[in-house]
Amino acid sequence: MKLSKIVSKLEEKGLHKTAENVKRVVNIYGAEKDTFNIIERTFGEKGLTIGLANIHAKVPDIEFNKDKIAKAVTVFKKKGVNIAIFPEFCLAGYFWEDEDACWPYMDKAIIENHKDWMGSLKDQLDDTLQFIVLNNIRRGPEGQKKYWNSTYLINENVDYNDPKHIYDKTFLPGIENTYTISGKTDRLVIDTKWGRFGFSTCYDFCFSQIYQEMSQIDKVDAVIQMASWRGSSERDYPGMNVATDNYYGDLWDMLMGGTAARNQMWVISTNAVGTHAISKARFWGGSGLWAPSGLKLLQGSHIRDELLIVHNISIKGEAKFEKDDFDYSIDFNKIYKILKGKKSFTRMG
User: Fold this and answer.
1) What is the pLDDT of residues 164-181, one digit of tens each?
2) d(CA 172, CA 68)
């Protein structure tokens, strides 16, 4: 018997809670052939519904990745998502060491070569699904071979090609310095009916100043963080009987909640998952939602593709609640002052 018939019979008998539990279990284990495992939760009675794509980008296979993103958007739309968010490099996939092979592939992957596809994603928007947020490389400054690592907003009222609606990644780790250039002072903040959002990318999250600026100067309610963050790295403290093979992954988990709590703002994160087919780098996944308290509300798998959906989040309400309880910025502003005309602070004597 099909799932839909089982659920209908349970609902006919008034067993609504059992029907919901059946749907949740099936979604988690992928028996309903939506291609993805789906984890679905409800925060409150009204508010923002987000869709987080905890997915793997296949390298080298741009068309495969385009198809996967489009399918995820279809699922998100069906589920009533307002903002659909994808990981860093979700279209191109991540770089690798062999430059003779990597450069030609990435030249094909730049966003300028996929305008029709971006347009097809925009066609999916309606009064409910209002934003699709994704990351990809684009051409860098004229005369330079390197790319920008860019986050795009697909929205009815936004030209995704306009630099004022693009965030170019600030901090570049390791191999990314070979292929990309920093956005340096770039930033992106948008106002919506649900709240005020800032944007950051992967390694940016290791630098607290960015989020201090967002919370103290830009007054954001939430940051959307997109990443291709790796998991594997060893740390060993034998005298304390403490060791890990997943230090970078552990660091991701620690930073998400810590950044949310310290800045009293939501952290909404998507991260790539799975193993790079060429470099064998293993990405941590663990996309999720952290409240302004720093508490983790939902987190995705570290090993497999999943779509995470959270309905009816009170973005403004929870940010206000946290500050009404204990507003760190009051005491911060007694000691630090914003330098006029700059995104910086000075400590007053």
Assistant:
1) 999 999 999 999 999 999
2) 26
